[in-house]
């Protein structure tokens, strides 16, 4: 990496890029805004993100991971974590960890104040994620992504999934 493209090891608040907002296509109330701290410092194998959920929204869609571990740490506000079908109220200092294969989970904000948290996890070349409420499975191998019915048993990447 050249000096011109080298990322800083220390990322000061004033140097963070603008926050972006996004929604997950399978989450009807999904709306989260934030910034990637890991991208800004050049980390490639793990992701670390500072995220915000406005009142009445959720982060993504109820999902589980097969190969990538994920974690969440609440900084401020309150939320409801739905983990394996059970609701847990969470607040500042609470931590959630999802080793693989993970149980399904989603973070929601039914309260009147913004929920702010750190989220992170692994970034593998391939991943399988299930969306049980939509009965769909997402398979990502390299830059290719396929989504298909969870019950179909279809293999969108013949010969490749066996290597995951």
What does this 3D model show about the protein?
By secondary structure, the chain is mainly beta. Helices cover 2% and strands 44% of the residues. The protein has a 6-stranded antiparallel sheet. Strands 4-10-7-8 form a 4-stranded antiparallel sheet, with no helix packed on it. 20% of the residues are buried.
Kindly name the structural category: mainly beta
Strand content: 35-45%
Give the helix proportion (percent range): under 10%
- Give the strand tally: 14
Outline: globular
Strand count, sense and barrel status of the largest sheet are: 6 strands, antiparallel
What is Rg?
17 Å
Mean pLDDT: 90
- What's the helix count? 1
Following the backbone from N to C, one meets helices and strands in this order, namely EEHEEEEEEEEEEEE
Strand line-up of the largest beta sheet? 1-2-3-11-6-9
Distance between termini?
29 Å
Unreliable stretches covering 5 or more consecutive residues: none
Characteristics:
four-stranded antiparallel sheet, mainly beta, 2% helix, single chain
How would you summarize what this structure contains?
With 164 residues, the chain is mostly beta strands. Helices cover 2% and strands 44% of the residues. The strands form three sheets. A six-stranded antiparallel sheet has the order 1-2-3-11-6-9.
Write the layout of secondary structure elements.
Blueprint: E1 20-22, E2 32-36, H1 37-40, E3 46-53, E4 57-58, E5 64-65, E6 70-76, E7 79-83, E8 86-90, E9 95-98, E10 105-109, E11 115-122, E12 126-131, E13 136-141, E14 144-149
Antiparallel strand pairs: 1-2, 2-3, 3-11, 4-10, 5-12, 6-9, 6-11, 7-8, 7-10, 12-13, 13-14
């Amino acid at each position: 990496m050249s000096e011109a493209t080298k990322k800083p090891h220390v990322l000061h608040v004033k140097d963070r890029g603008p926050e972006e907002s996004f929604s997950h296509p399978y989450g009807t109330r999904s709306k989260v805004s934030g910034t990637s701290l890991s991208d800004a410092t050049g980390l490639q194998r793990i992701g670390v993100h500072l995220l915000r959920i406005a009142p009445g929204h959720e982060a993504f869609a109820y999902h589980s991971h097969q190969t990538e571990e994920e974690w969440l740490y609440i900084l401020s506000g309150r939320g409801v974590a739905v983990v394996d079908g059970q609701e847990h109220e969470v607040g500042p200092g609470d931590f959630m960890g999802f080793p693989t294969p993970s149980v399904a989970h989603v973070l929601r904000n039914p309260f009147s104040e913004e929920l702010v948290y750190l989220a992170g996890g692994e970034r593998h070349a391939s991943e399988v994620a299930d969306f049980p409420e939509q009965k769909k499975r997402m398979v990502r191998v390299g830059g290719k992504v396929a989504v298909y019915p969870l019950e179909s048993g279809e293999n969108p990447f013949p010969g490749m999934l066996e290597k995951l």
